[in-house]
Amino acid sequence: MVRKLKWEEVGVSNGPSFLSPGCVSSKNCDLLFTSGCVGNDPITGEYPEDVESQARNAMENMKRVLESASSNFDYVLKALLFISDPSYASAVNKVYQEFFPGRPSRSCIVVSFPDPKLKFEMECVAEVPAN
């Protein structure tokens, strides 16, 4: 099982409550390294206009990837988020907290996507628990 580091363990008295500074996996486990999931609708392929909807779609898409590998958000060790504008961070954080109550370690990077409709992408590393 994944052990979440606490901020106090790394000498920080008041770190961000929505993420962990790190996660430790067990010795005998399988790890899933996902490709990026974007916020398109899985049926139509269309991107919603707003970043919150794109983030929600991307996390639902990621949920399907995790479940297909017999894992879930509780086993995510590290999430990597990409946003196309720094002003999107608060909307993305709101959605992130709904899907990641376990608060895995996380990074969020501002990037320029090749498709201007794309506002959000995510990938993660997750433990696949033994059956």
From TrEMBL:
Show the stretches that span the lipid bilayer. Answer: none
Q: Name one GO cellular component term.
A: cytosol
Tell me the InterPro entries matching this sequence: RutC-like_sf (IPR035959), YjgF/YER057c/UK114 (IPR006175)
Annotated CDD domains:
YjgF_YER057c_UK114_family (cd00448)
GO MF annotation terms: deaminase activity
Q: Which family does it belong to?
A: Belongs to the RutC family.
Q: Which PANTHER family match?
A: 2-IMINOBUTANOATE/2-IMINOPROPANOATE DEAMINASE RIDA, PROTEIN HMF1-RELATED
Protein name, please?
A: KLTH0C11880p
